[in-house]
Design goal:
Length: about 180
């Protein structure tokens, strides 16, 4: 029994959800997203809630039950509220800025890193050492944040690099005399 899958997805006001076979489409103030579920689950809309049920008791059907429900929840939340990921840059001379449709990162390399911003994603650099990535699609926001962090992950001795704002860096002790 899936603990996630047995709960329905509540559709808030201002969001329009359409279910056709296993294709779920959500429209809201932040855009439109779709999700194609596998044939192992059935999806239906009742009383402003989206219910996901497995078609049989197989292992794959039970696994896809919770997955499909979580993906639909992310669609609904994405088009109504959106997702945001905060990154912080630590290090002397490390900074970021948005220039048109690309994010310019100065990370101690010989050349600046220019990261193109995907469509539907908004990037804001309030300070040169902080980056806020926001958008409707949770997967795209998280992937972009992970790729940017991958250019200079935080190192354990001084903590220099790019880290998530809620990430704790395990610091190591340096050399001893």
């Amino acid at each position: 029994m899936s603990r996630v899958g047995k709960n329905p997805v509540v559709v808030p006001g201002g969001v329009d959800v359409q279910v056709a076979a296993n294709l779920v489409t959500a429209k809201g103030k932040l855009g439109e997203l779709t999700y194609q579920a596998t044939d192992d689950v059935s999806i239906e809309m009742k009383d402003g809630k989206v219910w996901v049920t497995p078609k049989d008791e197989g292992k794959r059907a039970r696994a896809m039950w919770g997955t499909a429900r979580a993906r639909i929840q992310n669609l609904v939340k994405g088009v109504s509220e959106g997702f945001t990921r905060q990154l912080e840059i630590t290090g002397v001379g490390y900074r970021a800025s948005v220039q048109g449709q690309s994010l310019n990162l100065q990370l101690g390399f010989s050349h600046d890193v220019n990261y193109p911003i995907p469509a539907g994603i908004k990037v804001v650099c309030e300070k040169p050492t902080s980056i806020a990535i926001s958008g409707a699609d949770k997967q795209v926001v998280g992937q972009m944040a992970a790729e940017i962090r991958g250019y200079r992950p935080p190192e354990p001795y001084k903590g220099k690099g790019i880290r998530y704002s809620d990430e704790q860096i395990l610091r190591k002790e340096g050399k001893k005399k």
